[in-house]
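User: Could you go from structure to sequence for me? I need the amino acid at each position, not a summary. Structure tokens:
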């Protein structure tokens, strides 16, 4: 199964395409999309375009996205929620099933411990799949981890 995995964000969007089965995942692509600073609607349109382009290019069976985590900063949470809306709309237009993963599910699937920190998740990713050498931001690594988690979760049941 091929999964388009997204770590939603307003300033940065982690995106990855992971395929195979949970015991042998393969990374097809990963990137960090940074919408240009500007009007909110322009930024969200750029997020939607990036997701739509990835759907067209990689033809995934499903889109996996991290659930919204509310922090102290409400302004950031609202921006991430708007980004999630643009991402989910792109999935809806493409009729892609959506797999939502909580941060704890991702940590558990990747490290075996639901309370693991970001460093532990980042350290496990290259042990689980071949990771071509390049500098990656946390958002990109998070998207890869979400993809691995979604492979383990499988498609949502109707």
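Assistant: Here is the amino acid at each position, in order:
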């Amino acid at each position: 199964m091929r999964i388009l995995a997204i770590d939603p964000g307003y300033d940065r969007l982690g995106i990855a395409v992971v395929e195979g089965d949970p015991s042998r995942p393969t990374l097809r692509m990963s990137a960090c999309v940074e919408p240009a600073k500007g009007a909110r609607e322009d930024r969200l349109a750029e997020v939607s375009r990036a997701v739509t382009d990835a759907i067209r290019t990689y033809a995934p069976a499903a889109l996996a996205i991290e659930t919204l985590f509310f922090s102290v900063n409400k302004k950031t949470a609202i921006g991430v929620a708007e980004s999630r809306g643009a991402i989910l709309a792109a999935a809806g237009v493409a009729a892609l099933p959506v797999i939502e993963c909580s941060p704890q599910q991702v940590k558990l699937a990747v490290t075996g411990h639901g309370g693991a920190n970001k460093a532990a998740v980042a350290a496990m990713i290259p042990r689980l799949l071949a990771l071509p050498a390049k500098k990656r931001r946390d958002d990109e690594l998070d998207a890869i981890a979400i993809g691995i988690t979604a492979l383990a979760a499988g498609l949502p049941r109707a």
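One structural detail worth keeping in mind: The first strand starts at residue 2 and ends at 7.
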